[in-house]
Amino acid sequence: MTSTSNTRLSSCTEDIIRIENGTFYRNYPSEADAPGTNPAVFSKLNFRLPIREGPEGSAQYWSVVSPSSLARTTFLQVLAGQHICIPHTARTYPYLAEQSRAPHLAIQYVGFDAERGSSVGGTSVRGAYLSARYESRREETDFTVYDYLTGHTELNALEHEPTQQETAILESVLDRLKLRDLLQMPVANLSNGQTRRARIAKALVSQPELLLLDGPFMGLDPNTSRYMASLLKNLAEEQSPRLVVSLRPEDGVPDWITHLVVANADLTVVARGPKTKLVTRKRKQTQELINDGRKLSGEDTTVLSRDGFETHSPALPPGEALVEMQGVKVTYGDKTVLGDWTQTFGGEERPGLWWSLHRGQRCGIFGPNGSGKTTMLSLITSDHPQTYSLPIKLFGRSRLPAPGEQGISLFDLQQRMGHSSPEIHAFFPKNLTVRRTIESAWADAPMAKPRLCAEADRRVDAMLRCFSSQRLALFLRAIVASPDLVILDEALSGIDERVRDKALLYLSHGEHMVLPSDFLVEGSRSAARSQYPQRSMVSRIGKVTFEGLSPEQALLVISHSKEDVPGCLREWICLPEPGEGRLPRTGTLSGPLELNPSAWEEEVWKCDD
C-alpha cells in the first residue's frame, strides 16, 4: 500500500509545469472572431519542466531563445499561467497542486525585455518627471531600496515587524545580489543595473518555486553580465528557485543552461531539447554565415556591416564643439558620482571631467553600470539641475547668462537635440499615435502642437512607410528633424534583430540603402548575401526625403551591447568603476564594431591593470 502511494505521489509531483498539446490565445476564442483578430500563440505546444533531476541524474536548466522579444515574453507568460489554454486541461502544475501553492504566487515573472524602462516601483516611484531623480530634496514618496524589498512603498503603510525567517531570507538575498550597500539609497537614484538587481531581489524575497527572467542580460555591461551569469548559475544549481530565462541570440547561451526552446517571430516553437544537440546542429552553418561577411551584392567583394560600413572606414573630420565639459564634477554630499579624478588637459593636471563633442563625431559613452553614464547624459540634456552651476557649454553657450554672453534656453536645447531613451519612454504620453509622436519633434513639448512644414510632413510620411513598430516611434522622433545632436540611450535595446538592423541602416543612410526583403531565407550562403545593404530604388530615382545623419550632426550613443551600437560610431569614452578614482579612457575605432568585434572587449572594455 505504501509503495503504491509513493509511486502515485512521484508521478503527481514530477513536473512543476506540464503542457501537453496545448494551444493558447490572448482572448477566449469564439466562432464570431473575425479572421486574424485573435490568432493562436504557440499552437499544439508540448513542454515539461521536471521538479526533480532527469533520468541521467542531472538537473534540467531551460532557456527560451528567439530573435523576437514578443516570442520570448509570450512563451514565459504561457509558463506563468497567462493566456487562454485550449483545452483547459493541457496546462497543469502538478507539483504546485501537491504543495497547495497557487501558480500566480509560486511563479514569479521579472521582465526586462517587454518591460524595459520600467523601474523597481514603476514611474510613480522613480519620480513624476524626468529630472526628479537628480533632485536633492527628499519626499515621503522617495522610498529606499529597503522599503521596496520589504514592501513598504505605500503612504501610511501598515507596520509589520519582520519575523526571524523573513529577516534571514532578506539578508541572504542582499548578499547574493550585492545590494547591502544600497539599502538606504532612494530607488529613484538607482542605475539601470542596480535596478535590475533590485527587481530580481524583490522576486526572490517572496521565495517562488519558479523564477521566469525575461532578458536578464539586456542593458548590462560585460562585467555585470558575467557576474549576473554566475549569480543565475548559482541560483539554478541550488534550485532555489528554479529558473527559466529568455535570451536573445546575441546574448549567447550560458554554459549552465542544459535545455533550449527555440522560437520564431511567428510564435511557433521550431526546436526544443538538450542544448548540446541543438547547438551542435547549428554551429557549423552559423560559422559559415559569419565568415562570409556582409557584402553589397553577389559581385561586389567589399565587406559591409549590417548598416553599410566597410571594415576600415575613417571618422568624419570634427567641426565646431557642440558640448564642452571643462572640469565637471558631480557630487551629492560627500559622494562623487562623476569626475572623481584628475585629467591632463592643456599640459596641466586638472580635476574633473574634461571632454567635448563636435559636429561630425559619432561618439559612444560606455562604462560599468553606475559609473555615471546617465548622469553625464543628463548634464548634456540639461535634465540635471547641476547643469546650471557646472562648467558646461552647450552649443557654445552656458545655461545661465554671463556678462556679455547670453544663456541658452531649454526650448533652444530641445530644438537642437533629438533624444531617445527608456526613461523618455516611461514618461512620454501614451495616448499619442505613432505619427503624432514623431511629429512632436517639431513641438516645444510632446502635447504641444507641432510646427510642421511640407518638408516635415514628407519626412514623417517616409518614415511611416519604412517602419510600423510602435517601439521605434521615439527613435524616429529623435532623428526625423535632423537635430544638431542625436542622443540614443539604449534606444534599440530589446528591439527584434531585423527591426534593429533596419533602424541602424536608416540612421546612417536614410532612404538611400535598404535590406533586401528576402533576407529571412535560411540555410545557405545566398541567404547570407541577401542580408547585405543595397542601394534603394528611391535613391536610384532621386526621390530621397530623409538622408540619414549628415556631417553637420553629432551622434551620442549609450549601449551595453555591441549589437546595438551603430556602425558609424568611431569615438568613445569609457567611464571607470564608481569610487575607484581612475581616469576615463578614450579611443577611436577603425571601423564598425560588427566587423571588428575584438575591439569591444580589447579596447572599449579593456580592464585596467
UniProtKB/TrEMBL annotation:
One of its GO terms (cellular component) is mitochondrion. SUPFAM superfamilies: P-loop containing nucleoside triphosphate hydrolases. Signal peptide: none annotated. It comes from the Eukaryota. GO terms for molecular function: ATP binding; ATP hydrolysis activity. Residues 17-290 form the ABC transporter domain. Keywords: ATP-binding, Nucleotide-binding. The keyword Nucleotide-binding applies. This is ABC transporter domain-containing protein. It comes from Cercospora zeae-maydis SCOH1-5.
